[in-house]
TrEMBL record, chain A:
SUPFAM superfamilies: P-loop containing nucleoside triphosphate hydrolases (SSF52540). The keyword Nucleotide-binding applies. GO terms for biological process: phosphate ion transmembrane transport. This is Phosphate import ATP-binding protein PstB. SMART domains: AAA (SM00382). It comes from Pseudodonghicola xiamenensis. Its main location: membrane.
Automatic annotation (TrEMBL), chain B:
Pfam families: BPD_transp_1 (PF00528), DUF3333 (PF11812). It is found in: Cell inner membrane; Cell membrane. PANTHER family: PHOSPHATE TRANSPORT SYSTEM PERMEASE PROTEIN PSTA (PTHR43470:SF5), PHOSPHATE TRANSPORT SYSTEM PERMEASE PROTEIN PSTA-RELATED (PTHR43470). The chain crosses the membrane at residues 35-58, 231-252, 272-292, 298-322, 343-365, 421-442. Keywords: Cell membrane, Membrane, Transmembrane, Transmembrane helix, Transport. The lineage of its organism: Bacteria, Pseudomonadati, Pseudomonadota, Alphaproteobacteria, Rhodobacterales. It is a multi-pass membrane protein. The gene is pstA. Belongs to the binding-protein-dependent transport system permease family. CysTW subfamily. GO terms for biological process: phosphate ion transmembrane transport. SUPFAM superfamilies: MetI-like. It comes from Pseudodonghicola xiamenensis. NCBIfam families: 3a0107s02c (TIGR00974). GO terms for cellular component: plasma membrane. InterPro entries: DUF3333, MetI-like, MetI-like_sf, Phosphate_PstA. This is Phosphate transport system permease protein PstA.
Length: 265, 450
């Protein structure tokens, strides 16, 4: 067993931010997500773990309808954000994605200046009325992304010129800049070295103050370190969902236990 | 593990020295050297061909950039040009070019006499050293400057193409045995006049700027007007194929669903790129000229036909450029709440722009060099003798194009035109090489910025 250092973080009574009801996802004929029901809480870090190919990314991408961009992908069921079904025909995915930001596995800054990377979202959503306000948003986002001190002197430098860890924090800052309520992260540290990983994890813990964070990770230690809730996926099923400490020390399902003890994966 | 070789040589034993090459290694190294030698030989052969081509073209064509001129003092005899003496333009116009020929004959006779050159030639045969267009040149000048009548002025006339060819070495005393246009005494006189500085060969800007001339006056023919024809066609091609091609590519690459009909379109675009250009020519003839009643020989129609040809090139290269933009950039834009169109126009298109531009330039270069479709829409032949004076005229009035002009010259009997054809090829190649170089530079400079 891993030496898991989940201190008993007191999780106060939380409001549900997202709730998924009977979600099915199909890629053409293949059934990638089967009957998933889950409640994701506000101001909480929820980790999705599971063997690769089990559907973690697929389910995460349902939460901001990024799956819409894949032609063959069909989603069934309901996903409620603050009680509203985001798959309702009246909902425009573009508006949704401003509320539910996303950070990707590989850092993907725009090949533009650091400033423009952050300012892009606010610009297209009309969040700033003038240059001063935009400057303010950029600074605030970079500060929250814990990268302000490293880039404040070179905002005009290209975002692609930063190191991998800096790029990922830039991407997090970019996601924050549109004032989202939920932040989705798909293996945000898998392309990073341990030091950069530690910085991003620290940042995730801070983000919990303001956002509901959902993070996909293949590292169980990372899940244990950053999350309060953990969901274990296996072959498209949500096998177990609960307090992180609970899942790692005392899993209910034998499949969860096999996975965290390293027998499946 | 045993190393089982195909040709059954003994497997390498443990403890063998590395200081000696095994037979197997030697064979392998020899094969590699042989292959490299083949490669170098292939490249050398290619370079040799290129060198031969360039030497040939420049050797044959550079003569077109120089031209022989005859400088004479012509007395604009008032008694002949303006009998009434009132300098009335209408009266002056009544004198045709035939009326000017005697003035030139007198001028050259006087010159020859003044130089003390002995010759049995009649003044008429002396004047034959000049271009057949010389009287017309004189007349044009007089009509523009009626005040000059009565004065003696120095004029610079084009020499006849035979005289020009003689100075360039194309025409010899031997080669003119059966030539009715020039005789040995005329060449003797030419030698004398060259010595006296009356006849000289200089740079010929008229070849680059001027218009085509009739069969009788190869010395006056220039490629300038057909260059304008090409320019107007390229304007049409650019204005149509770039927006249409880019819009089609963006739709196919970024928006269209993967379905059977997009596959059909895809296959058809590839097929279109392989269609012989003459097919587009006959299509242009049928659709634009016969059906839509557009004028024959107009650069507008030429441009439309070449647009059809260029579109597949632009679409294919634009789609390749769009495909080369990593999907993560689209994800990033969509992830912050950009719409699909915003993602494409704000992020994908700027990154693809160099590739699109490169494809466009290459497509234009292809279109610029295309001749076959122009044959069918009447852009080949002796067409324009004056450059167009406005955009509308440039698009609608009959004109030729550079490659069509070259073809036309190469087709004419007089070897003097042959030289022009080579000269035209030099100019065309300068354009094509410039455009392709630009495309390469663009591609190099903007390669993968992410
Ligand atoms: N774009 C796609 N098209 C078709 N099948 C896909 C696509 N993306 C994922 N899948 C399939 O869906 C299943 C879940 O994939 P994914 O969500 O990426 O797993 P994870 O993120 O847990 O590794 C896999 O079997 C995968 O092959
Ligand atoms: Mg994944």
């Amino acid at each position: 067993m891993y030496d898991i250092a989940t201190t008993e973080k007191t999780v106060e009574q939380q409001v549900t931010k997202i709730s998924a009801r009977d979600v099915q996802v199909y890629y053409g004929e293949s059934h990638a997500i089967k009957d998933v029901n889950v409640d994701i809480e506000d101001k909480t870090v929820t980790a999705f773990i599971g063997p690769s190919g089990c559907g973690k990314s697929t389910f995460l991408r349902c939460l901001n309808r990024m799956n819409d961009t894949i032609d063959i992908c069909k989603v069934k069921g309901e996903i409620l954000l603050d009680g509203e079904n985001i798959y309702d025909p009246k909902v425009d995915p573009v508006q949704l994605r401003a509320k539910v930001g996303m950070v990707f596995q590989k850092p993907n800054p725009f090949p533009k200046s650091i400033y423009d990377n952050i300012a892009y979202g606010p610009r297209i959503h009309g969040l700033a009325r003038n240059k001063a306000e935009l400057d303010e948003i950029v600074e605030k986002s970079l500060r929250r992304g814990a990268i302000w001190n490293e880039v404040k002197d070179r905002l005009d430098a290209p975002g692609t010129g930063l190191s991998g860890g800096q790029q990922q924090r830039l991407c997090i800052a970019r996601a924050i800049a549109t004032e989202p309520e939920v932040l989705l992260m798909d293996e945000p540290c898998s392309a990073l070295d341990p030091i950069a990983t530690a910085q991003v994890e620290e940042l995730i813990d801070e983000l919990r103050q303001n956002y509901s964070v959902v993070i996909v990770t293949h590292s169980m230690q990372q899940a244990a370190r950053v999350s309060q809730k953990t969901a274990f996926f296996h072959l498209g099923n949500l096998v177990e969902f609960g307090e992180t400490g609970q899942i790692f020390t005392n899993p209910e399902d034998p499949r969860t236990e096999s996975y965290i003890t390293g027998r499946i994966g | 593990m045993t190393d089982i070789s195909q040709n059954g040589s003994t497997p390498r034993k443990h403890g063998e020295t590395l200081m000696k090459l095994t037979a197997r290694t030697k064979r392998r190294n020899a094969a590699e050297r042989r292959f490299q030698a083949y490669g170098i030989a292939a490249i050398a052969a290619g370079l040799l061909m290129l060198a031969i081509l360039v030497v040939n073209i420049v050797g044959n064509g550079y003569g077109a950039f120089t031209q022989t001129f005859v400088t004479l003092d012509v007395t604009l005899d008032a008694a002949k040009l303006d009998k009434k003496g009132q300098r009335n333009l209408d009266d002056i116009k009544k004198v045709s070019t035939f009326g000017y020929a005697p003035l030139i004959q007198k001028a050259i006779e006087a010159k020859v006499a003044a130089l003390g050159v002995k010759t049995d030639l009649k003044p008429k045969d002396m004047a034959a050293l000049l271009s057949k267009g010389a009287p017309a040149q004189l007349r044009d000048y007089v009509l523009e400057h009626p005040d000059a009548i009565g004065k003696t002025l120095s004029f610079r006339f084009l020499a006849n193409s035979r005289v020009d060819g003689y100075l360039k070495g194309r025409v010899t005393r031997h080669s003119i045995e059966n030539d009715k246009n020039i005789s040995v005494p005329q060449l003797d006189l030419t030698d004398q006049l060259v010595k006296a500085g009356v006849i000289e060969k200089t740079f010929n800007s008229e070849f680059i700027l001027g218009s085509d001339a009739s069969d009788q006056r190869p010395e006056a023919a220039g490629i300038g007007t057909s260059m304008l024809g090409s320019l107007f066609m390229m304007l049409v091609v650019l204005a149509l194929s770039l927006p249409i091609g880019v819009a089609a590519s963006i739709f196919l690459e970024e928006f269209a669903p993967k379905a059977w009909w997009t596959d059909v379109i895809e296959v058809n675009i590839s097929n279109l790129a392989a269609v012989p250009s003459i097919v587009f020519g006959i299509l242009g003839l049928a659709v634009f000229i016969n059906y839509m009643n557009q004028p024959m020989s107009a650069p507008l129609v030429g441009g439309l036909v070449l647009t059809l040809m260029t579109l597949p090139t632009i679409i294919i290269s634009t789609r390749a450029a769009l495909k080369a933009v990593p999907p993560s950039i689209r994800d990033a834009a969509l992830g912050v709440g950009a719409s699909k169109m915003q993602a494409v126009f704000h992020h994908v298109l700027p990154l693809a722009a160099p590739g699109i531009l490169t494809g466009t330039i290459i497509g234009l270069a292809q279109a610029l060099g295309e001749t076959a479709p122009l044959l069918l829409i009447g852009m080949v032949g002796f067409i324009a003798s004056n450059p167009p004076d406005s955009l509308a005229a440039g698009l609608m009035e009959p004109n030729s194009a550079m490659p069509a002009q070259i073809y036309e010259w190469a087709k004419r009997a007089d070897p003097a035109f042959y030289e022009r054809a080579w000269g035209g090829i030099i100019i065309l190649l300068v354009f094509l090489v410039t455009m392709n170089t630009l495309a390469v530079i663009l591609r190099r400079r903007f390669e993968r910025r992410w």
